[in-house]
Amino acid sequence: MRARDLALTATAVALAAGGVTLPLAGTATAAESATVRKDDFNGDGYGDLAIGAPGANSVTVTYGSAAGVGTSRATTVTQSTAKVPGVTERGDEFGESVTSGDVNSDGYADLIVGAPGEKTAGRPEGTVTIVWGGRNGFTKGGRTLTAPANSERRFGEAAVFIDLDGDDMANLAVISGNHWWFYPDGVPREGHAIGLETDFLPKGVRLDNMTAGRFMSRDGYTYVLTGERADGGAYTAYTKGGAGDYGYWSGVIAEGDDPSASRDPLAVGDLDGDGYDDLVTGNPRAAKGGAVSVRYGAETKFGKPVTYTQDSVGVPGNDEDGDRFGWSVATGDVTGDGRADVAVGAPGETSGDAGARGAGSVVVLKSGPRGLRDGRGLHQDTPGVPGTGETGDAFGSAVRLKDVNKDGRADLATGAGGEDIGSGRTAQRDAGAVWVLRGSSAGITLPRVTSFNGSDFGVRLPAGAGGPGKAFGEALR
């Protein structure tokens, strides 16, 4: 594809040494820590957007504001950042997974970064690093947790930070490629991870993702894990309970060739406004071009799956080979009506007047009492979206719905893992880029779209280290 520069709607920022940019004043206090936003790293009351680039071993946080996010207020964190533990090495995949929460109860959200490719002498594969947030950004350092057992592979594939045992204190839970772990109350410490009381996971499973929600109870959380069985079939399962009994109450949600099974993409949100979280899973291998399934939460059980393809009523596009509809999924209340809406990435979609294969698209579906409806397709050739759809751009390789300007409506962030940046000798192939589009009562709007790429933050992927799965924008939090 042709290398090019993206049209930017924000001014590029000059990076300070160690990856830290402008100090950003916040107002949080320790007394407010119980109610601090899980994604407000500098304590100014706005949600922030974290962008992982595992090929570059970095996470960039662009800070929310009334004007949204951009390049002028941001911090890039690596293992070479001052006070952050570890050493940046090719293949670590620092930024493969990103989550957040106020881990040390100081009133600021902290960044939780998985590096499943990290190799530490004498230790199994993978780490999770907690980087402390604060008024001036990420200047307080952090701590790293290594895999808790010699049998582990790819510790840090995914993590969540929620109150798993109902005592009003959140806990860190982490998956490796083959196990699930959680840490007791308080700041997680090395050597304190607790595994499943009963290991229900099948032999040879390869886990890829995890989420948690109030699917079966309005009070307690259920974890959902996705991955592949040893025979290559999809594997989507759940476990629920309390500290000390996780694994006893567990089961398979879907697996094998079931179109509602997922190997990776999943999201959680209350789509019907009944107080129970609902589970959204993506399966880009289902049907011809992929599918998305919704399981509505209910007391003690998941509802039956409702599956959508691009041939479903209310979903724009056509179900075509290679679209990869469902490669990424996200939930958030775009319209402010109290119900979560759904964004679906289709990075294999052919789009644009030139018919560029794999240019990619994102479909945003509104939720309602009769399910998902009124879908809208967006891509780089949509008027108002910066850029031009080109072969292999993979627009939609990652999606996130979250409110970054505090107007009560979720905004759409989407990555394009195959986007080329620059031109000539300085061109970066498959470096990746991110777009942020505003939410409104009518849905996603196109005025004031922001777009940026790693070069705007001093992030450069080594040659051959980019593309979907490794590029800037692989993880959006």
Automatic annotation (TrEMBL):
Residues 80-100, 368-395 are annotated as: Disordered. The keyword Glycoprotein applies. Pfam families: FG-GAP (PF01839). It comes from the Bacteria. The keyword Coiled coil does not apply. Residues 1-30 form the signal peptide. InterPro entries: FG-GAP (IPR013517), Int_alpha_beta-p (IPR013519), Integrin_alpha_N (IPR028994). GO terms for molecular function: hydrolase activity. PANTHER family: GLYCOSYLPHOSPHATIDYLINOSITOL PHOSPHOLIPASE D, PHOSPHATIDYLINOSITOL-GLYCAN-SPECIFIC PHOSPHOLIPASE D. This is VCBS repeat-containing protein.
